[in-house]
Amino acid sequence: MQQHIFVLNGPNLNLLGQREPEIYGHDTLSGIEQKMKALAREAIISFRQTNSEGQLVDWVQEAGRVADTLIINAGAYTHTSIALHDALRACKSKIIEVHLSNPAAREEFRTTNYVSACADATIAGFGAAGYLMALTATLDAQS
Ligand code: CA2
Question: Which residue among the candidates 77, 99, 114, 131 is catalytic per the annotation?
């Protein structure tokens, strides 16, 4: 059966590839989207980015209605958003949390995480490859 996979990206991830490449790498977000779509086999990928917390919550709710799997990099909302946590708790999709960097090895404030407890798996610290790892694992689990 054809899988529907949501890939949601939170605040400031639209800046990827433009600043701080030593932390986040050189890939742009649209480059990551293209690589994921090239790997997607017959799966449908809905790839989105927002800087707005409410929009991210709306999309998580939508994922829960229509997506088999949600791959999410919530950016800084990972560390702040109880609204996102509640939306993820209610989401029926399989949830894979992705981070480019490893927040646990950075500033103290990044060790608070409201996403991990709702995720089936977390991939962090592999840069853009983490998104592809999440996708490959999702597709392999269904084949
Ligand atoms: O490592 C990750 O993927 C993060 O989710 C990225 C977030 C950060 O707040 C999390 O702690 C970890 C930040 C995304 C901002 O991305 C930028 C990219 C280029 C230039 C400036 C920001």
Answer: 99
Q: The domain spanning residue 18 has which CATH number?
A: 3.40.50.9100
Spell out which residues line ligand 1, taking CB within 6 angstroms.
12-13, 15-16, 18-20, 24, 73, 75-76, 78, 99-101, 103, 110
Measured over the CA atoms of residue 143, residue 37, residue 97 and residue 21, the dihedral's sign is positive
Cα 100 to Cα 28, 49, 91, distances in angstroms: 12, 15, 23
Residue 24 appears among annotated catalytic residues: yes
Contacts of 22 (CB under 8 A, 6+ apart): none
**pLDDT tens per residue, range 2-47:** 999 999 999 999 999 998 889 998 999 999 999 999 999 999 999 9
Beta bridge mates, 122: 97
Instruction: Give the count of domains, the chain.
Output: 1
Rounded to the nearest integer, the mean pLDDT of the chain is 97
Structural domain range at position 43: 4-142
What's the pTM value of the predicted model, to 2 decimals? 0.97
Alpha-carbon span 10 to 75, nearest angstrom: 5
